[in-house]
Amino acid sequence: MKMVAPWTRFYSNSCCLCCHVRTGTILLGIWYLILNVVVLLILLSALADPDQYHFSSSELGGDFEFMDDANMCIAIAISLLMILICAMATYGAYKQHAAWIIPFFCYQIFDFALNTLVAVTVLVYPSSIQEYIRQLPPDFPYRDDIMSVNSTCLVLIILLFISIILTFKGYLISCVWNCYRYINGRNSSDVLVYVTSNDTTVLLPPYDDATVTGAAKEPPPPYVSA
C-alpha cells in the first residue's frame, strides 16, 4: 500500500536541470531581479547625465526624441515595479507563500500575450517588417544585409525565432504555475491519500475528526476470566 500526497498526482515538481520547481522559481526570480536592477541603473545614469545617451535626429533617421524626461520617469517606475514583483516572487517561493508568486505569474502571462500579438502581427502583416527596417538609421548594423533578404524568408526566420521564444516563455510559465500549486497544496491540504494495488483510492479523515470519532465509541466490555 503506497501513500501519496494529492499535490503530487496532477503536475510535475521538477523543471530544467532536474531541479525542483520551487528552486527553479527562485532562480528565475533572482535572474529577472538582476536584469531589472541593471536596467534601473542604466536609466538612473541616463537621467543623471542626459548627454551620455543623447542621439541626434540624424542618428535616429528622423525627428524623434530618444528619451525625454517623461519617458525616463515612466521607465524608472516600471523598473521599480518589476524589481518589487521579482523580489516578491523570490521571497514567496523561498518562504512558501503562494500568494506572493501571483504578481510575477500575471506578468509572465502579460509578456507572453504581447509576444503572441507580435507573432500574429508579423504573420498577418508581413510587409510591416520591411517598413520597420526602412525606418532604421542608415548606419544600423546589418541593415542593408537584412533588406537584401527575401521577404518571405525573413518572415519565416522571424516567426521561427518568436516561436522559440514563446515556447521557452511558456515553459517558464508552467514552472512558476507548478510552483504556485505545489506551495498552495502544501499549505492548504493535510489530507493523505492511500492508493491500493487495485487502483482504488481511500481518503483519510482529518486527525481531529478521527480522534473524536474514536473517542465517541463505547469501550469493549472488560475481559472476565473463566
TrEMBL record:
Q: Which UniProt keywords apply?
A: Cell membrane, Cell projection, Endosome, Lysosome, Membrane, Transmembrane, Transmembrane helix, Transport, Ubl conjugation
Q: Which residues cross the membrane?
A: 30-49, 70-94, 100-125, 146-168
Where does the protein principally reside? membrane
List, alphabetically, the GO terms of the cellular component aspect. Answer: cell projection; lysosomal membrane; multivesicular body membrane; plasma membrane
Q: How does it sit in the membrane?
A: Multi-pass membrane protein
Q: What does this protein do?
A: Required for optimal lysosomal function. Blocks EGF-stimulated EGFR intraluminal sorting and degradation. Conversely by binding with the phosphatidylinositol 4,5-bisphosphate, regulates its PIP5K1C interaction, inhibits HGS ubiquitination and relieves LAPTM4B inhibition of EGFR degradation. Recruits SLC3A2 and SLC7A5 (the Leu transporter) to the lysosome, promoting entry of leucine and other essential amino acid (EAA) into the lysosome, stimulating activation of proton-transporting vacuolar (V)-ATPase protein pump (V-ATPase) and hence mTORC1 activation.
State whether it acts alone or in a complex, and with which partners, per the record: Homooligomer; upon reaching the lysosomes. Interacts with MCOLN1. Interacts with NEDD4; may play a role in the lysosomal sorting of LAPTM4B; enhances HGS association with NEDD4; mediates inhibition of EGFR degradation. Interacts with PIP5K1C; promotes SNX5 association with LAPTM4B; kinase activity of PIP5K1C is required; interaction is regulated by phosphatidylinositol 4,5-bisphosphate generated by PIP5K1C. Interacts with HGS; promotes HGS ubiquitination. Interacts with SNX5.
Question: What's the name of the protein?
Answer: Lysosomal-associated transmembrane protein 4B
Q: What is the lineage of its organism?
A: Eukaryota, Metazoa, Chordata, Craniata, Vertebrata
What gene name does this entry carry? LAPTM4B
